């Protein structure tokens, strides 16, 4: 009986050793694969940054030359229209390249956490956005916002893009209003930016946070389609979550969370 027990213990020890070896091998493979994916992503981002950077100068040159040529062109109305279109397209490409570079820069920037007065940051976002939209066209409401433990520059970019997005899609409507508020405490605070603008189909909400994920015509609502993708990337870097709720013609509500002051 003792011999059988000893044999069983040896067998269990062997199996445990095998399982430990398998687990270690799996961990090594996962670590290697993660390192490969990280290196691949870094290479792709470096290539994208270089391409965007190199495209910026030619686009600026085309826009500047078109602007210089417009007053000197004495051709037909169609020719002048073509020149104006060329300038507008070049300017749009410049803006697009700048936003792509910003998306890449913010996404790879060092994350430095600090205690942030979110209400003050929201006030600055409103002040910045109000310069683009007449004061009489929008009613702003700023509620109490719990402080956050996050990267100040990245949070500023999150709020700026969300507030600008709300203003863009509501400012053309009568009684346009944007509200910034929060619910929950510091550790589980949920920040909210709500407008009463054109809204969108809730089934398409997932597209909003993808680069160039437009749900409305660019001719009606100018922009590059990068802003909400920046928001998604920066919120995710903080370990938070962002989502949107809406219906056509009934405005949109954007929610995002960040880690609490403890970093938990």
Per-chain topology:
Blueprint: H1 2-69, H2 77-108, E1 114-116, H3 118-130, E2 139-142, E3 148-150, H4 152-168, E4 177-183, E5 190-195, H5 227-237, E6 242-246, E7 252-257
Parallel strand pairs: 2-4
Antiparallel strand pairs: 1-3, 4-5, 5-7, 6-7
Helix pairs in contact: 1-2, 2-5, 3-4, 4-5
Give your account of this protein's structure.
With 264 residues, the protein is an alpha+beta fold. It folds into two domains: 11-108, Helix Hairpins; 114-257, Heat Shock Protein 90. 53% of the residues lie in helices and 13% in strands. It contains five helices and seven strands; from the N terminus they run H-H-E-H-E-E-H-E-E-H-E-E. It has helices spanning 2-69, 77-108, 118-130, 152-168, 227-237; strands at residues 114-116, 139-142, 148-150, 177-183, 190-195, 242-246, 252-257. The strands form two sheets. It has a five-stranded mixed beta sheet with strand order 2-4-5-7-6. A two-stranded antiparallel sheet has the order 1-3. Helix 1 (2-69) runs antiparallel to helix 2 (77-108) and helix 3 (118-130) packs across helix 4. The longest helix is centred in the N-terminal third of the chain and has 68 residues, at 2-69.
CATH superfamily of the largest domain: Histidine kinase-like ATPase, C-terminal domain
CATH topology of the largest domain: Heat Shock Protein 90
Proportion of β residues? Answer: 5-15%
Q: How many runs of DSSP E, i.e. beta strands?
A: 7
Distance between the termini: 53 Å
What's the Cα radius of gyration? 26 Å
Overall pLDDT, averaged? 80
Summed up, the domain count is 2
Largest sheet: 5 strands, mixed
CATH class membership of the largest domain: Alpha Beta
Give the ordered list of helices and strands. Answer: HHEHEEHEEHEE
* Secondary structure: helix percent: 40-55%
Structural class: alpha+beta
- Principal-axes geometry comes out as extended
The CATH architecture name of the largest domain reads: 2-Layer Sandwich
Contiguous helical run count = 5
In what order do the strands lie side by side in the largest sheet? 2-4-5-7-6
Poorly predicted segments? 260-264
């Amino acid at each position: 009986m003792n011999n059988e027990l000893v044999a069983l213990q040896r067998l269990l020890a062997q199996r445990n050793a095998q399982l430990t070896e398998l687990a270690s091998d799996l961990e090594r493979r996962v670590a290697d694969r993660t390192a490969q994916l990280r290196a691949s992503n870094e290479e792709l981002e470096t290539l994208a940054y270089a391409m965007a950077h190199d495209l910026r100068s030619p686009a600026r040159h085309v826009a500047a030359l078109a602007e210089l040529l417009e007053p000197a062109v004495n051709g037909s109305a169609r020719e002048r229209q073509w020149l104006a279109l060329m300038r507008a397209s070049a300017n749009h490409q410049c803006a697009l390249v700048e936003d792509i570079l910003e998306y890449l820069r913010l996404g790879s920037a060092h994350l430095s956490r600090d205690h942030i007065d979110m209400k003050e940051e929201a006030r600055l976002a409103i002040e910045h956005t109000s310069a683009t939209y007449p004061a009489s066209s929008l009613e702003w409401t700023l509620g109490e916002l719990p402080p956050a433990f996050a990267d100040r520059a990245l949070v500023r970019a999150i709020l700026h893009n969300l507030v600008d997005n709300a203003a863009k899609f509501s400012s053309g409507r009568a009684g346009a209003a944007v509200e910034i508020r929060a619910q929950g405490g510091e550790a589980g605070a949920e920040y909210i930016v709500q407008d009463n603008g054109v809204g969108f189909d809730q089934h398409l909400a997932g597209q909003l946070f993808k680069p160039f994920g437009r749900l409305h015509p660019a001719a009606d609502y100018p922009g590059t389609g990068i802003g909400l993708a920046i928001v998604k990337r920066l919120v995710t870097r903080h370990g938070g979550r962002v989502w949107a709720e809406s219906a056509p013609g009934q405005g949109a509500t954007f929610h995002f969370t960040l880690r609490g002051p403890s970093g938990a």
